[in-house]
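Researcher: Batch entry, complex prediction.
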Amino acid sequence: MDKPKIRKGMLSSIIPGLSSLSQRGLAGWLVVLGLIIVASIVTMTAISPWVAPYNPSTINVGPPLMSPNSQFLFGTNDLGQDVFSRVLSGGGIMLEVSILSVIICLLIGVPLGLFSSYAGGLVDRFFCLIMDSIYAFPGLVLAIAIAAMLGRGVTNMALSIAVVYVPSYFRVIRSQVLSIKEMPYVEAANAAGAKGRTVLSRYIFPNVVPSIVVVATVNFADAILTAAGLTFIGLGVSADIPDWGWDLTNGRRLLSSGTWWVITYPGLMIILLALGFTLMGEGLSEMANPRLRE
Amino acid sequence: MTLRTYVISRILLTLPMIFILLTMVFLVIRVLPGDPVLLHFEKQENPEAMEDMRHRLGLDKPLWIQYFDYLAGLFRGNLGESMEDYSSVGQQIFSAFPATLELAIFSMVVAVSIGIFLGVEASKGYGKTRDNVIRVFGIVTYAIPVFFLGMAFQMIFGLGLHWLPVGLRLHPTLDVPAGLNIGGIHFSTGLYTFDSLLEGNIYKFVASLRYLALPSLTLGLVLSGVFIRLTRSNMFETLRLDYVTAARARGLSENAVTYGYAFRNAFLPVLTMMGLQFATLLGGAILTETTFSWPGLGRYIVDRISFRDYTAIQGAVVVFGIFVSFVSLGVDLLYAYLDPRIRL
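Model: Structure tokens for the complex:
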């Protein structure tokens, strides 16, 4: 009965910028700007096989280390690969890894947060202690250790990143549930004899969704930067597949020769992608917590 | 609660955290891969050498005995032996640690200074252009990979303008600052800036500052966004409190009101954030050290990864974790000392 109502409220709190942008002010614009950036990069990466002037992995398509010119827009790297083509297609791995890690975080962090805070007591204490311990640990150090042990590959990278960020999801959801659980309508549901599972999924969960969306969006930026970091210290996927992170690692050796174009363009792409998600996250969190808006 | 009870309970709370942390590291490095020795010998062509190493490092014992050996070893300050040459991991970490500490301290100073200054500036013109520009600055610095910023600085200030050195802690021809040497008693911290002051060598002091400049600016800038945001929102609230208005009414200068009155109260959350961000800072330090060939703990980990030296990686990760726990303990205690409300 009341389900459609919740759905509607939920939707409008997730994508309000699209329908009532003008009323949302700056926050709405931030979300839309972020969305445009992210969507353009995803599209660019997806269509790159058809639009890239050269095969990004083929070596010696031109002379090595040529500065940007009309034939090679962004120049070539030390292997004679076309930097422009590599920029077009190099986002693939980073996007795959970050999407997968966010999904893993959602699958583990959300149910765990819901369950732990609803159960309360010793169970809650136990999970909190574990999550706080992971949270207190230097994230990248932990991700590096796990990635080093698991070995290369998209899934392994995503897993090592996910372990680091699950506590962020857990904490946000837990604190939300703690306050929602005390609301009169939840009490009413409990009093009416609803099962714990029903209360969690039908009454509490829909109200946590906006927060989940905010955490996941912000986390995308973190995941991308962590993935880039892992690649930078040599724990990336493979040197054969074009990847911005790998291009930066490779370009570091060439810095002293003054070949700025090898790292500048892929570096700017990573910034742009992370920025897109950060802007979206910034706008969404401002909408989810109107109190912060003065 | 008195300050003493708070200190004791906070210390007691740290112990289970450290225990979980150590267990986590053990799970990740020893249990997760199955057999680290198999991983170390990538080609596995020499079974005898592998068996030898397993025996030497105690990896042939049952897992739970390994676990207790590991905890007992750590308790005695023993971080194990390197898989590469059985040298003491603890000693290697001990010699690399000061470099990371020095970088961390200077980066934190950079991050907090930039954060406070820009945060205060933004809060003065809340919602105006100045505020928005600073906000954008905060968001953009957050999105920059720290190693890319480092390389950009190397290109611009090092290789382009030749203003600052782009790697290492000190020029190879210079001796390491000796620290204090009085009547045969030797004291040094391993922090080059501090040691060169103890030695009384201003030239080395300036030199080590110059080597520190780009790495700590890189790491500090990336971290500053969080502090900008925090200072801005806190200052915005504090500046509207009555006691600040009262200070203004007495005719104090705007700077005296902002920094002498309002900021004192807005600083406590910044202190907490310093503790929380310390973990992030150390993560960034690994990448910064790699970018600037800075011979610290992060560089050590990355180096050991390429040798598949899992015992050394384990030791370094443990030290990182314990270091963070102690820093956050220290920050919390300092907070309790500064703000009596926490002890209530």
